[in-house]
Amino acid sequence: MEVLGLFNYWVVIFLMMVGFYALISRGNLVKKVIGLNIFQTSVIIFYVSTGKIAGGTAPILIGDDHGVAEAGAEVLYSNPLPHVLMLTAIVVGVATMAMALALVVRIRETYGTVEDDEIQEQVLADEAVEGARA
Amino acid sequence: MSAHLPAIQIVVPLLAAALCVLVPWKRVSWGIAFAGSVTAFFAAIGLLSRVLDGEEIRYALGGWAAPWGIEYRIDAVNALVLLIVAGIGVVVTPFALKSVERELDGRRIPLFYGAWMLCLCGLLGIAITGDAFNIFVFLEISSLSAYALIAMGSDRRALVSAFRYLIMGSVGASFIVIGIGLLYVETGTLNLADLAERLPALHGERTVLVAFAFLTVGTSLKLALFPLHLWLPNAYTFAPSAVTAFLAATATKVAVYVLLRFFFTVFGTAYSFEQLRLGVWLLPLALVAIFTMSLVAIFQGNVKRMLAYSSVAQIGYIILGVSFASVTGLTAATLHLFNHALMKGALFLALGCVMYRVGSVHIDALRGLGRRMPWTMAAFTAGGLSLIGVPLTVGFVSKWFLVLGALEQGMWPVAALVLVTSTMAVVYIWRVVEAIYFGEPSPRAESATEAPLSLLVPTWALIVANLYFGIDATLTTSVAGQAARTLLGGAP
Question: N or C, fewer C-beta in 10 Å, chain B?
């Protein structure tokens, strides 16, 4: 049953591989960027799921008005740190995504395509021109 | 004031980045960037001098103590890396003033300096921080701004190279986060010093092994270790000249520092080099990198790309030193971090001067420039000699320690190979030098004149540093030796 108990990690690995495959195999730059984003999201799910424990509550003080728990009462709470770290990682992910899409827009403007092989042809043509001119 | 030097080191470039973007005048924005880089340079010198007195600086950022807050911890290793980054920053920023005005659209210049300062801040941050997740955050700050800087290159191929770099760099960074996450799950801390304390008890765990693998591959992507170097040559070739000089001298060096930190401090030499026998894996990769990349460099028409391939080979020399895991080997590696920053910085700046006057860095465009731009070309030649490793230059000092390290391990074929590959550097540098001094000038080179002083002075500052630290290497070798002993866990 250990395999099922670790299902969150299976989800993470599945998403990671989906993203990684899209990133490597797709020739369309936008699809590459989306693949990268899925890949990064799987890491976020990994962190968040490690912080969670079954039955754990939010990490806030529980008890009377002064925030003091009753003597001897144990409170089970999820680890907030991985969640907070992922807030930063989400921001980084958004910035990476924005940067990548902005680059794709500029590539589309200058090359007239977002297909990797067509861009590569034009790059090779540029190299040939440079060699001939110099 | 001096107690807060670690914070000043990071915060000043960060604030300068914001100011650079806010002002609409390009010269003012350059001035802010220059002030930021000068401050960072003096902060780095201050930190290094304190560390050399034998002090390990611990700074709780915002007053939050270590296990909860982010701690900046500075010893000989990162003080040296801080000095490299800030030193190159302070030399290249004055160069950028005219070079960038020539190569970039005027409206984009304030944005350029914003990204420039962010990149400086990120690279310094990676080096200074003592918190694993903070390394990732600064890594992304420096990488994202580096993608933007590269994409600003005037050739349209810059966009494609920046995109490639972005994809590969982000995968590398994600690998690093996975590694850090696994370490956190296993130990419950993100503080590098605490990790180093808790990991030895867990050395048999598979989680730790997986974390190690992810961190190694992720960092190797960032430092362009063969065969993960594919993003580097084009990114360096098409970036604006000042950006190439800055990134070539700093970005990969900082990634090497991260690798050293994880191998030696966090996981410990006993785990990385005795239990996993990492040296056996790193040594062949380093040798292949040195050999193939030097060979590829020989056949490049574009001189900037030739030097970029040579950079991958030089990373190989650094990793070769690391793979010995001995004091001499690590001294050679850290020395070469510093020395390679000086020589590649100087060479790329000299090419920036050529770009400014001739508008191309193809080898045919350089023909006959020896008589038109004597100072620039003398700088290029001196930098080339240093890259080869001729005595009286810094290149010789690093190669000397590298060969010593190899002989100490009884690996004389490796030592011989280091010497043989140096002759390959002779070949690719000589091709350019021959074209410069003995070639017939092309029409464009015919009308070229010497580069302006604001470009020549930074270039020559680095060349003088190349010669100075090549003749009197006592300072650099003592710092590198102290860094090596710190990494291996001995007394500083």
Answer: N
